[in-house]
Design a protein that fits this description.
By secondary structure, this protein is an alpha/beta fold. The protein is built from eight helices and seven strands, in the order βαβαβαβαβααβααβ. Helix 4 packs parallel to helix 6. The longest helix is centred in the middle third of the chain and has 29 residues. Bound molecules: NADP nicotinamide-adenine-dinucleotide phosphate. NADP nicotinamide-adenine-dinucleotide phosphate binds next to helix 1 and strand 2.
Length: about 240
């Protein structure tokens, strides 16, 4: 049984990943930060189905909390076989209105968290000479998003980290890949109106928005033995945006 850590799994794409991996026989560590009720209800749902799941509260933007989270994991199992770095925040602001605090919070949550979790997960993967890391970036990390410059910068950083780390750990049998979702129906879009969402859907070739499950299936593939020759890649899952 693989041990899979999914950061930010209380809601949205992370929760869809937790369901998919757990239902396919993996032991899933569900990380959350603030949404305890949502995380508990996902945990109960999967436990009731007989799945192997554990809840881990930690703010992954904080290096010390990530270390503690991995200590708890290592008290239960030897290490993590699959790491899905999914936790993130978004914020829409004019560039000139972004404060130092907004900038730091964005970079810490959306980029440094990936560094902290990869660094903590890798010693076990390197020792075993196998492992899968999937980082969730964004279409804005590829092309940039107006009024989301700090988010776009952090997500572009995730793509750069992915490519460089893939080169560094490839000989240890570890793959590191990235997914850049297009617009996916989750709480992250709560500030968008129905009209905004229609415009965004119309900008895709398929004319629809994505679902959390669309991203979960891509993450599952990039974590599977079938993707063993793919590394350093950024997979766009965006309906042809
Ligand atoms: P979401 O519904 O807003 O959920 C975000 C998740 O991240 C929540 O589970 C939240 O946990 C967790 N999180 C945030 N800060 C955290 C922290 N410091 N420590 C631990 N967990 C934290 O977002 P989503 O749409 O599912 O997004 C998932 C990923 O896809 C993100 O990386 C996002 O950037 C990316 N993405 C999304 C879209 C989209 O259209 N939805 C598009 C492109 C990329 P708590 O609630 O427990 O705090």
């Amino acid at each position: 049984m693989r041990n899979v850590l999914i950061t930010g799994a209380s809601r949205g794409i992370g929760a869809a990943c937790a369901r998919l991996f757990a239902e396919n026989g993996d032991r899933v560590f569900i990380n959350y930060c603030h949404s305890e009720n949502a995380a508990r209800s996902l945990f109960d749902e999967l436990k009731d189905k007989g799945r192997e799941v554990m809840l881990l509260q930690a703010d992954v933007s904080n290096s010390g909390e990530v270390k503690k989270m991995f200590n708890v994991i290592q008290s239960q199992v030897r290490g993590i076989d699959v790491l899905i770095n999914n936790a993130a925040i978004a914020q829409t602001k004019l560039f000139t209105d972004i404060t130092d605090e907004d900038w730091r919070r964005m970079i810490d949550t959306d980029l440094s968290s990936v560094f902290f979790c990869c660094r903590a997960a890798l010693p076990y993967m390197i020792q075993r000479k196998s492992g899968r890391i999937v980082n969730i970036s964004s279409i804005w990390g590829q092309v940039g998003g107006s009024c989301e410059v700090h988010y776009s910068a952090a997500k572009a950083g995730v793509i750069g980290l992915t490519k460089a780390l893939a080169m560094e750990v490839g000989l240890s049998g570890i793959t590191v890949n990235c997914i850049d979702p297009g617009v996916i129906k989750t709480d992250m879009l709560s500030s968008y109106t129905e009209e905004d969402l229609k415009v965004l859907a119309d900008q895709t070739s398929l004319g629809v928005l994505g679902t959390p499950e669309d991203i979960a299936h891509a993450a599952f593939f990039l974590s599977s033995p079938e993707s063993s020759f793919i590394t350093g890649h950024t997979l766009s899952v965006n309906g042809g945006a």
